[in-house]
Amino acid sequence: MSFLYRADTKIYDPFSNYIDEQSTLRSKFLAVGLVSNNPIIAQNVEKGDKFKIPNWSPNLSGSIQVPAEGVPLSVNKLGSAEQVGVIFHRANVWGSSELAKLAVGATNDPMAAIGRRVTDYVLNAQQADLLATLSGVFGALGSSNSGAAFETMCVDATGSGETDLSPRHIVLADAILGEDQDQFGSMVIHPDIYAYLRVREMINYVNAKELPGITASTIAAGSITDSNAVDGDFSNAFGTNGQVPMFGSKAVIVSDDAPRTGSAGSYKYGVYIFKQGAIGQAYQAPVRSEGDRDILTSGGEDILKVQWDMCYHPLGASWGGSTNPTATDLATAGNWSKVFDKKNLGVARITCTCPLYI
Question: How far, rounded to the nearest angstrom, does the alpha carbon of residue 295 sit from its chain's CA centroid?
């Protein structure tokens, strides 16, 4: 165990108060409607470590027939398939000794400081599982995605020859959906790419109320919701000024956790483009915390445990790996397969480069 002890604290005098440095763990992926609670998944996650979601095939089969007297028509059937999802069981624990608390003073209680950071920690850890899942269905960033479940949803993902992000990439990503190419509405990019697009003056800003589905009254009432905001509720993703950055037709979400691989000067970046509700979410058991205290050690030791059991499931994908997967398992392309027609998949990935990096 790794408790916070007196030796880990900074002890000066009774009047020295700790600055409560703000958590830098972010979860912008989860702040908007890219991930949504899926009632069908929720009905199937109550038991076990894996669950199945059956679906009807999207289209009817069989060639059109020309009837003739005395000749029976051939009977066709509707096909079906199933997705397999997997539950992520996750937990972590933090502890501090009573002597450490006495050393720094009650106003600097380390257990209270831990408690203030738990929510950010959990959301960021959940986002890490989501990103690992996306890496799995698309294949490793910076290498050929041949054979990955969502191979057909990739743009310029060959492992070589990628170029800087441009409108061309967005058009090609939209074109994957053919005549339905207006379905993608949001994109998630790394800060390097965002800075590069700003330097090139390729980012436009619109007020949230200018997005289709948003009215002045919903802005004034502070009632932007998943149901009236295109591609989800952006109110928590872009601060309080209501300004939404746009690249082409896509609302831009900037995240430090967006994928980047390689080394300085040769980075490759993954840009995800989403339909609303592209990722289904459901909890088998909610996030819960539990405290405990060991009175046998000198002065006592306090413990805070947090645990959750849930899944993120890219709609149209199917899990073929083991139960209770690690992030590495989730990111392994061989563990995923495609079930839906590509037009019914909700996320595409662009692999690109960027000349501006930090």
Answer: 40
**Residue 331 to residue 328: CA distance in whole angstroms:** 5
Three-state secondary-structure class, residue 223: coil
User: CA 45 → CA 86, 311, 312, distances in Å?
Assistant: 9, 8, 11
Of the pLDDT bands very low, low, confident and very high (cuts 50, 70, 90), residue 26 is very low
Number of helices (H), then strands (E), belonging to the chain: the values are 7, 16
Angle at 229 between CA 225 and CA 235, to 5 degrees: 60
pTM: 0.77
- CB 38 within 8 Å of CB 55: no
pLDDT by residue (tens digit) across 176-212?
999 888 889 889 999 999 999 988 888 887 765 555 5
Sign of CA dihedral 308, 312, 318, 320: negative
Tokens representing residue 292 in the block: 């405990």
Cα–Cα dist 116/319, whole Å: 35
User: Residue 307: beta bridge partners?
Assistant: 91, 288
**Contact in structure between 51 and 45 (CB atoms under 8 Å):** yes
Biggest CA-to-CA distance, the chain: 102
* 210 secondary structure, DSSP code: G
Pull the structure tokens for residue 76: 């066709």
